[in-house]
């Protein structure tokens, strides 16, 4: 199950890349900017601004789950099933309703990836698996990575590493670059903001480092969670001392994905304003330099 294939990306690894977004994640980060990626199954998104008065095509497609109320459509998401989602996928003329997620075979995905191989060869690019968490679907991740390696395509994975090691290990020979999140090293704070285990992530990072894999650490800087000097210093020291990495990317928090929660009918519980603290970003860059790391600020 994937939810997007993005060609000509320049922000998800070196060179020009094709990013394959897999659905499913084992974390519940409050600030997630791709909430449609969390579920391993399809999601229905609804934008009432695009809905046409008097149109009832979606009600005809899924009468048990969609009804017209005085203030617009009422969607009973708990009643949606695969047959209804199949019927809803092509029905809305304005795309007020859209279904996120589709099943594609390895051959279908690779056919898209292969189209841009000349650009990869010239720019040092390749394929990047993203999500969600790609290793939540270890068989698909392994198949795509091994197929890409067989065709001489550079491979990268954007990962939170919050999965069992046995999901990652089979793919190790086929990954050229891990773009790995290190959100926090404080177990209690990590659990409260992500519903996950910081120890699992840190243990997997150590295993990747011990295996000699190339790692770029990514740190999303979230107000109230880790956008403070003590947290940044602890994260940076762990990356430098325990992982022996060279590159660390700091990603200042933004709210560009906030509206997706409305489309999914979900609450948004992260800060409602982006991070605006140039002094803190300067501190992060300085701490990284002091620990022998090259810091990059990514928008």
Structural commentary:
The protein folds into two domains: 2-38 and 102-297, Aldolase class I (TIM Barrel, Alpha-Beta Barrel); 43-100, Alpha-Beta Plaits (2-Layer Sandwich). The chain is built from eleven helices and twelve strands. Helix 6 links the parallel strand 8 and strand 9. Helix 9 (229-242) packs parallel to helix 11. Helix content is 33%, strand content 21%. It is of the alpha/beta class.
Please supply descriptive tags for the structure shown above.
Radical_activat_CS; oxidoreductase; iron-sulfur; 8-stranded mixed beta sheet; 2 domains; single chain; TIM Barrel; 299 residues; Aldolase_TIM; two-stranded antiparallel sheet
Could you outline the blueprint of secondary structure elements for this entry?
Blueprint: E1 2-9, E2 17-22, E3 43-46, H1 57-61, E4 66-69, E5 72-75, H2 82-88, E6 97-100, H3 106-114, H4 117-123, E7 126-130, H5 138-150, E8 154-159, H6 165-168, E9 177-181, H7 187-194, H8 198-210, E10 215-221, H9 229-242, E11 247-252, H10 258-264, H11 278-290, E12 294-297
Parallel strand pairs: 2-7, 7-8, 8-9, 9-10, 10-11, 11-12
Antiparallel strand pairs: 1-2, 3-6, 4-5
Helix pairs in contact: 9-11
Keywords: 4Fe-4S, Iron, Iron-sulfur, Metal-binding, Oxidoreductase, S-adenosyl-L-methionine
Protein name: Glycyl-radical enzyme activating protein
Cofactor: [4Fe-4S] cluster
Summed up:
With 299 residues, the protein is of the alpha/beta class. The protein has helices at 57-61, 82-88, 106-114, 117-123, 138-150, 165-168, 187-194, 198-210, 229-242, 258-264, 278-290, and strands at 2-9, 17-22, 43-46, 66-69, 72-75, 97-100, 126-130, 154-159, 177-181, 215-221, 247-252, 294-297.
């Amino acid at each position: 199950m994937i939810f997007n294939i993005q060609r000509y990306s320049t922000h998800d690894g070196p060179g020009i890349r094709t990013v394959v977004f897999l659905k499913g994640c084992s974390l519940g980060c409050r600030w997630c900017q791709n909430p449609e990626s969390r579920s391993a199954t399809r999601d229905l998104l609804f934008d009432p601004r695009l809905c046409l008065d008097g149109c009832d095509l979606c009600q005809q497609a899924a009468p048990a789950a969609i009804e017209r109320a005085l203030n617009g459509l009422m969607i009973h998401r708990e009643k949606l099933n695969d047959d209804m989602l199949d019927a809803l996928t092509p029905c809305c003329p304005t795309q007020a309703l859209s279904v996120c997620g589709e099943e594609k075979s390895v051959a279908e995905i690779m056919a898209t990836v292969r189209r841009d191989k000349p650009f990869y060869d010239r720019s040092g690019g390749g394929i990047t698996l993203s999500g969600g968490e790609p290793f939540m679907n270890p068989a698909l991740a392994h198949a795509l990575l091994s197929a890409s390696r067989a065709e001489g395509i550079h491979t990268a994975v954007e990962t939170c590493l919050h999965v069992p090691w046995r999901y990652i290990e089979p793919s190790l020979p086929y990954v050229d670059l891990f773009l790995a999140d290190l959100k926090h090293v404080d177990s209690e704070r990590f659990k409260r903001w992500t519903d996950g285990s910081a120890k699992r992530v840190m243990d997997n990072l150590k295993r990747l480092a011990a295996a000699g894999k190339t790692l770029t650490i990514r740190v999303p800087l979230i107000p109230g969670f880790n956008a403070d000097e003590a947290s940044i210093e602890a994260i940076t020291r762990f990356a430098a001392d325990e992982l022996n990495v060279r590159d660390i990317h700091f990603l200042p928090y933004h709210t560009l994905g906030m509206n997706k929660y409305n489309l999914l009918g979900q609450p948004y519980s992260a800060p409602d304003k982006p991070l605006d603290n140039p002094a803190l970003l300067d501190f992060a860059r300085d701490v990284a330099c002091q620990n022998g790391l090259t810091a990059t600020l990514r928008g």
